[in-house]
Specification:
CATH architecture of the largest domain: Alpha-Beta Horseshoe
Number of helices: 13
Number of domains: 2
Radius of gyration: 22 Å
Number of strands: 19
Structural class: alpha/beta
Strand content: 15-25%
Distance between the termini: 56 Å
CATH class of the largest domain: Alpha Beta
CATH superfamily of the largest domain: tm_1862 like domain
Shape: globular
Oligomer: single chain
CATH topology of the largest domain: pyruvate-formate lyase- activating enzyme
Strand order of the largest sheet: 7-8-11-12-13-14-15
Helix content: 25-40%
């Protein structure tokens, strides 16, 4: 069987060729080891019409798609079917997994039926024992990979890795993921009730360094962007990992959780010695009330203390913020601006909350007619559920534009966008 795995375009991004889709590389690597003939066709930065060049070359076409990518994924699918109506297709990736979860729970959703055009809709991880389910018709589920070290290192020769350009401290960098799953309950984050997203699994420190060394020896990288949700979620493992990393001349950028930094302040020194030159935290809001509403599990003071500890250690600190939280008011947003002025991070990014399938806000929303034009509500956030097969929805795109259509009782959609822009401007002064 000859298989094409397809990464769709993301034209809403300023630059589509910054971070490669390593998830699809992992699946291709697994299939190759099982004896399949696999090619990855990466459409990042390319026109969907180019799929016509390969419309009759493969036995199976597998699409990996996030929710914001779905309109482009459907363009690729429709163009493929125009040229080859009998083409066998599979949809996998985060969007398929999130929608499958809604379907399994018996919830009605505008985005379920639109996926039935694919021969197979595959939910979950495609590297486990029952990965063969991706070849079966209908809605299929993969099993959870429990021991990540049993998986092969992703074969990055399957993509044009050097065509991607990400800089860390002015030097070429690439991505790595050393763990999967996040045990916390933030309501805006997808997959809080899905095993592959909430069950923590981690590579051993030895396996992490093996992959880093391979990326250094084969591609020349010494700088790495970590795609772990929180590098510091397991303190014992973090100390061991940092000790091993300290034996290598590599630099790293990663995400940490503020409350765990304040609980284990010594971990900042570990991270610095390990080569972490940039650390980021999801601060989300400067309002303690909002942090409780979204079940962040962190206080504004913990966020501030973590920022202080990281900055004083000489590590570049970046905060990630959100405006448009459930029930948010102008006073809550004002507190976010005040927190940023007080903490004075080296950098920050602020986005508009977008409720995607798979997050608690989207999954548990109820129908509402309180505000005209907004048909769903969760804890005082009002929004619509787009038909992702054709409608755009992204929290930040070119020129910081957003296709995010939300409001609260205290903030209109227009106000939310205006406040986001005003706070972002603090980063430019």
């Amino acid at each position: 069987m000859k298989i094409a795995l397809i990464n769709p375009p993301s034209p809403f991004l300023t630059n589509e060729r910054v971070m490669p889709n390593i998830g699809i590389v992992r699946v291709a690597t697994q299939l190759k080891q099982k004896g399949f003939n696999v090619d990855i066709h990466d459409f990042a930065g390319r026109k969907p019409e180019e799929i016509r060049k390969i419309s009759r070359e493969y036995s199976l076409y597998g699409f990996s798609s996030t929710t914001p990518q779905m309109p482009q994924t459907m363009k690729l699918f429709n163009l493929l079917k125009q040229d080859n109506p009998n083409a066998r297709t599979v949809l996998g990736g985060p969007h398929a997994s999130a929608i499958s979860q809604l379907r399994q729970k018996g919830k009605k959703d505008i985005n379920i039926d639109s996926l039935n055009v694919f021969d197979t809709i595959f939910s979950g991880e495609a590297e486990g024992v029952n990965f063969y389910n991706m070849f079966l018709p209908g809605w299929q589920v993969g099993d959870l990979v429990k021991n990540l070290d049993e998986l092969p290192i992703p074969d990055r020769s399957l993509i044009d890795l050097k065509s991607y350009s990400f800089k860390l401290n002015g030097q070429d960098a690439t991505t790595i993921q050393t763990q999967r799953g996040c045990p916390f309950k933030c309501e805006f984050c997808c997959g809080r009730d899905m095993d592959m997203y909430n069950k923590m699994r981690q590579h051993s420190p030895e396996r992490v360094v093996k992959e880093l060394d391979q990326l250094h020896d084969e591609y020349g990288y010494s700088n790495f962007m970590w795609y772990d949700d929180e590098v510091n979620v397991n303190t014992a493992r973090l100390e061991e990992l940092c000790n091993v990393l300290s034996t290598r001349p590599y630099n790293h950028r990663g995400f940490v959780r503020s409350d765990l930094i304040t609980k284990h302040p010594e971990s900042v020194d570990w991270l610095k010695k390990a080569g972490f030159v940039k650390l980021c935290t999801g601060v989300e809001s400067g309002s303690d009330r909002i942090l409780k509403v979204i079940k962040k599990g962190v206080t504004t003071e913990q966020n501030y203390e973590a920022a202080r500890l990281i900055t004083e250690a000489g590590i570049h600190y970046e905060a990630f913020m959100i405006v448009g939280h459930p029930s948010e008011t102008i006073e809550d947003v004002r507190k976010t601006a005040e927190w940023l002025k007080r903490a004075n991070p080296d950098d920050f990014d602020i986005n508009i909350l977008t409720a995607y399938p798979g997050c608690t806000i989207y999954n548990n929303a109820v129908e509402s007619d309180k505000h005209k034009g907004y048909n769903w509500e969760h804890k005082g956030l009002y929004f619509n559920k787009p038909d992702y097969s054709k409608d755009a929805s992204f929290y930040k795109g070119i020129n910081a534009q957003s296709a995010s259509f939300t409001r609260t009782d205290g903030l209109t959609e227009k106000q939310i966008h205006k406040l986001r822009d005003e706070i972002q401007s603090l980063n430019e002064n």
